[in-house]
């Protein structure tokens, strides 16, 4: 499990776990650090995607379904042991939803809360970057720079830039295999859902997330662009809100 999951602060006596899913091209460094912001009652796991960090030699995932099944399989024992919540940003939101759906369908498990950031509801048609030439490195770099969030030094060195472009391309390819038809399942979840979005980010269709649960759905817009969550003040808001939701869950 250590290869796929980053856990900077183990809390064996925690009441619940928060499983974090990074964005396309992202690693575990930022979200794994969230463990220092929570009390010992919350153990924070961050999912490490193939093709980076300690999984740099692992082949990239082929599609969203196989990726979700791998994560669910590795985490299953921990998720059966105590309550859990998911937090995902952008690509991580879609992946966390896919994992949650697989857990519900196959094992009857579901998170007590889904925290989803910068992501359209999966029932809404959306375009990722259909017009992007998948072999055009410069176009991918331009897109990355438009979104922000990637340290400039990673795009200045040719060796690092090549790795960033390849990783983002592979994650986008996985994202384009993701599909969900609500007609197949009526209100798949009963948990609460919270949706976050940056005020200067692309407009995301968030309202339809409430169609996917019989629980409550809430929406928050925070100042900033696609990577608004990297701003310290926004990060504090996210942590406080997640903490409050966990406390109110009555675990």
UniProtKB/TrEMBL annotation:
Domain Thioesterase residue range list: 17-242
Record key words, sorted: Fatty acid biosynthesis, Fatty acid metabolism, Hydrolase, Lipid biosynthesis, Lipid metabolism
Catalyzed reactions per annotation: (9Z)-octadecenoyl-[ACP] + H2O = (9Z)-octadecenoate + holo-[ACP] + H(+)
UniProt-listed InterPro entries: AB_hydrolase_fold, TEII, Thioesterase
One GO term (biological process): medium-chain fatty acid biosynthetic process
This protein's record includes keyword Chloroplast: no
Name of the top EC class for this enzyme: hydrolase
A family per Pfam: Thioesterase
Entry annotated with the keyword RNA-binding: no
Protein name (database record): S-acyl fatty acid synthase thioesterase, medium chain
Species per Swiss-Prot/TrEMBL record: Acanthisitta chloris (rifleman)
Source species taxonomy: Eukaryota, Metazoa, Chordata, Craniata, Vertebrata
């Amino acid at each position: 499990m250590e290869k796929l999951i980053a856990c900077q602060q183990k809390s064996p006596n925690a009441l619940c776990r928060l499983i974090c899913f990074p964005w396309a091209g992202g690693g575990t460094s930022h979200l794994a650090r969230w463990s220092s912001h929570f009390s010992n009652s919350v153990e924070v796991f961050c999912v490490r995607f193939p093709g980076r960090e300690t999984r740099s030699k692992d082949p990239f995932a082929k599609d969203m379904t196989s990726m979700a099944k791998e994560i669910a399989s590795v985490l299953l024992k921990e998720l059966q042991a105590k309550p859990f919540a998911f937090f995902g940003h952008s690509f991580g939101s879609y992946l966390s939803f896919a994992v949650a759906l697989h857990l519900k369908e196959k094992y009857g498990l579901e998170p007590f809360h889904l925290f989803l950031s910068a992501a359209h509801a999966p029932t809404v048609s959306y375009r990722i970057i259909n017009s992007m030439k998948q072999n055009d490195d410069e176009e991918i770099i331009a897109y990355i720079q438009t979104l922000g969030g990637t340290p400039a030094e990673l795009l200045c060195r040719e060796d690092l830039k090549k790795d960033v472009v390849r990783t983002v391309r592979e994650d986008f390819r996985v994202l384009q295999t993701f599909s969900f038809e609500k007609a197949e399942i009526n209100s798949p979840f009963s948990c609460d859902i919270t949706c976050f979005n940056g005020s200067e980010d692309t407009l995301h269709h968030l309202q339809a997330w409430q169609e996917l649960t019989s629980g409550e759905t809430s929406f928050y817009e925070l100042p900033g662009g696609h990577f608004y969550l990297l701003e310290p003040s926004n990060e504090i808001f996210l942590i406080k809100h997640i903490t409050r939701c966990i406390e109110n869950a009555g675990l």
